[in-house]
Amino acid sequence: MSDILDRLAAVLEARKQAEPQSSYVAGLYAKGLDAILKKIGEEATETVMAAKDGDPQHLVAEVADLWFHSLILLADQGLHPQAVLAELDRRFGLSGLEEKAARQPPG
Fold first, then answer.
1. Is 18 helix (H, G, I), strand (E, B) or coil?
2. Do 60 and 103 form a contact (C-beta atoms < 8 A)?
3. How far is it, in rounded angstroms, from Cα 21 to Cα 30?
4. Residue 15 · residue 25 · CB < 8 Å
5. CB proximity list for 73: less than 8 A, separation 6 or greater
6. What is the C-alpha separation between 49 and 53, in angstroms, rounded?
7. Cβ atoms of 74 and 83 closer than 8 Å
8. Who's near 28: CB < 8 A, 6+ residues apart?
9. DSSP 8-state assignment for residue 10
């Protein structure tokens, strides 16, 4: 799985240098952070709706769209998907409650 993320990250990085009219991703980068965030919000909503519909294929397609746009956001912010994988690896073996408590400020 890491291989596909590496390949996507390389393509997304290359699209930063492309002319906006040359690709969807280059055009999204040209529109800026707010456009990327709006697209992630749309994809998240579509993912929720697909889950509610109960169609596994539709859900997989929408999650793929959500992940893809999240990868665009990471690239836009100068981050590689490996950073997310490292964070997931760090959390592996922790209970969700413990991990969430560790993120909460004391008080």
1. coil
2. no
3. 9
4. yes
5. 36, 37, 40
6. 6
7. yes
8. 35, 36, 39, 72
9. H
Q: What is the DSSP letter of 54?
A: T
Nearest to 43 by CA among 57, 72, 29, 63: 63
Residues 62/47, Cβ–Cβ less than 8 Å: yes
Q: Where are the alpha helices (DSSP H) in 17-95?
A: 24-31, 33-53, 56-76, 81-91
pTM of the prediction? 0.85
3-class state of residue 41 by DSSP: helix
Task: Name, in order, each residue with C-beta under 8 angstroms of 39's C-beta and a sequence gap of 6 or more.
Answer: 28, 69, 72
Neighbours of 63 (CB within 10 A): 16
pLDDT (tens digit, 9 = 90+) per residue, 21-78?
999 999 999 999 999 999 999 999 999 999 999 999 999 999 999 999 999 999 999 9
Q: Is 96's pLDDT higher than 70?
A: no
